[in-house]
Amino acid sequence: MKIAILSRNRKLYSTRRLIEAAEERGHTVKVIDILRCYMNIASHKPMVYFRGEPMDDFDAVIPRIGASVTFYGTAVLRQFEMMGVYPLNESVALTRSRDKLRSLQLLSRRGIGLPVTGFANKPDDVKEVIKLVGGAPVVVKLLEGTQGIGVVLAETDKAAESVMEGFMGLKANILVQEFIKEAGGSDIRCLVVGGKVVAAMKRQGAAGEFRSNLHRGGTASLIRITPEERSTAVRAANIMGLNLAGVDLLRSNHGPVVMEVNSSPGLEGIEYASEKDVAGIIIKFIEAQAKPGKTATKGKG
Residues of 266-275 as b/e, b for ≥16 C-beta within 10 angstroms? Predict the structure, then answer.
């Protein structure tokens, strides 16, 4: 097969590993910088061009689209879908998962465990929203934040009010969530491929840090997940319509709760922690699934 990887940097660990895994299995791989693509949106022959060349002979496309370029990246991915190229994750599923509020609403509708979450538009409603989620301590999150950026732990109601009012004053959209103290600054990343959890790791925040992101100094270790955690991760990925997903869970007193469903999960931490060839598993899945024009939307919403 000929596989396109939509990535802005071929030197990133995840991109390198996908290239290696595909080439080891005899496939041809081309890394395409999505921001260097341009498109011909025609009725009979839609086309993606990269550096002047038509990208019209791929069997599958793997999107590794950063959050900052979601709009243009999904437009390019959608164009490949229109050309009949098989996407590992479809554009509509990727867009759905990137909208934190919408994804939580979809998960909530299907009964997935979530932290109690509040959302408001006006500073006048801040006190009521804090009370709605159980009072301080609470976690305030920017809807557009990634890798732990724009996530603040407010220890008191007054601190929460100040943070929320400050964000609102900057016209930023925010969520406020209950703080799951019993998680102890750790979470679980489940890597779901094709409706199965293929690897899992525990991420522990650095000393004095409630965020467990590896980019913020967190550490990763192997963990054995429970059947309920496995089921929750698979269901969350399916609801988003994602074939590949990193589902982040917290262990709370009332069972596993989903913090986020990531459509472009990094492979480095989870491959090291689990000692599994996750990139190879992803390529094997594509081999089994890739057929021209197979882009029917999964999930709802």
Answer: bbebbbebbe
pLDDT digits (tens, 9 = 90+) for 146-188: 655 778 888 899 999 898 888 888 888 888 999 888 888 789 9
The Cα–Cα gap between 219 and 187 comes to 11
Nearest to 72 by CA among 119, 37, 107, 24: 37
Strand partners, 151: 141
pTM: 0.87
Cα 291 to the chain's mean position, in Å?
25
> Would you say 189 and 148 are in contact if contact means Cβ atoms under 8 Å apart?
no
Query: What confidence tens digit (pLDDT) does each residue in 243-297 have?
Result: 999 999 999 988 899 999 999 999 999 999 999 999 999 999 999 998 766 766 6
- Local structure of residue 81 (DSSP, 8 states): H
Which domains, and CATH codes, for the chain? Answer: 2-93 (3.40.50.20), 117-179 (3.30.1490.20), 182-287 (3.30.470.20)
Question: Which residues partner with 250 through β-bridges?
Answer: 257
Sequence letter at residue 153: L
